Structure formats: structure tokens, C-alpha cells
Amino acid sequence: MGKERKYKTLKEFYPYYLTEHQNPVCRGLHFFGTFWVIVIAIVAPFLGKMSYYWLIPLVGYGFAWFGHAFFEKNKPATFQYPLYSLASDFIMFWHIVTGQIGAKLKWARETIYGA
Description:
This protein is mainly α. The protein is built from five helices and no strands. Helix 1 crosses helix 4.
């Protein structure tokens, strides 16, 4: 086995993150979880239900980890790069919303695998 690469910046980590999310169902589960994280974070204060914030990690990580376990079949990058992974999840969410995800996945494969 080769030595695992250590990422020092979000900019160099993000292509790796995307290559760990090739399966569209896994990406969809990430999207769904992130969407609900955003909804909870925005709506809870307006409802006066700050206790709903405990749902954020459950929803955010629950859907993502399910996707990795059953569809992507890899270990979530969160365990080694928690902050980069969190930031990358929101970046990937934005790339899905704006229709850039296909081009970004291609770029990531070229960046990481050179193909």
C-alpha cells in the first residue's frame, strides 16, 4: 500500500474529496443532508427552537455516512480531515446547485489521477 497523502490546504484537498464522492447516490445523500442542515440552522431560531440544533450533526453526518457505507463503500474523509471535509461538503453542495458538479468531478479525477 502506498503512503497516504497529507493535505495542507482546502484547495488541494477538495479534488481528493470529490474523488471520494463518485457515486451519484452518495452525492445525493450528502446534498440532502446538507440541505437539511442549512434549513435547520436558518429556521430553528425563527421558531424559537434552538434545541433543534442537536439535529444538525445527526442529519448532516447521518445521510453522508450512510452514503459512504452503502453506496461509495469507502471511509468518510471526515475522520482524517474534519474541517476540510465540512467545508468541502458545502462547496460540493454549491457545485451541485449551480450545475458545476460534472465539470468539477472531471477536474478532480484529472487532478488526482492524472487522467
